[in-house]
Amino acid sequence: MNCFNHPEETAVATCIDCGKGLCKSCASLYQMPICNECNLKRVKSVKGNLLRVYLPSIILFIAGLVIGTINGSFVTGIMLGWVSAGIPWGWKIITFIQPRMFLFLPILGWIFYFGLKLILSYPVGLVALPIGLVKMILDFVSIRRKEKNVKDNLHSNLEGAGAV
What we know:
Elements (H helix, E strand, L loop, with lengths): L12 E2 L6 E2 L1 H4 L8 H36 L2 H24 L9 H54 L4
Antiparallel strand pairs: 1-2
């Protein structure tokens, strides 16, 4: 089997996702033997997952900003947006640390439990939101670098193969 990108080179590995042959230089581009196309798919998948994770906070921030600005001032809108955007973060943290005994509650217990959890999500979210925002920014910067790196490698392989 020969390398998919460099047909004149003998393959020393295969892509773990699609099985294409990879020569020594292609197989050593990343930590694992993966072709550029499959790695780009993985990076885009991670990028999409990041957006899905942070989308509720973004929507709640915008909703709080609009409601606060309409009913008060822009500063009120920012504060209401911040509090609203923190709810999903507080909810996630409370869900992570809660005991599993709540699984066996009657319906009235569930209503009380979710109401209490929502109320506690506000203050916990106020603390968790800045930490989550920093993590989100770092994740997006990292994924953008990875995406650029993969695209550069893909472009250089296409140039080397004479496809561009």
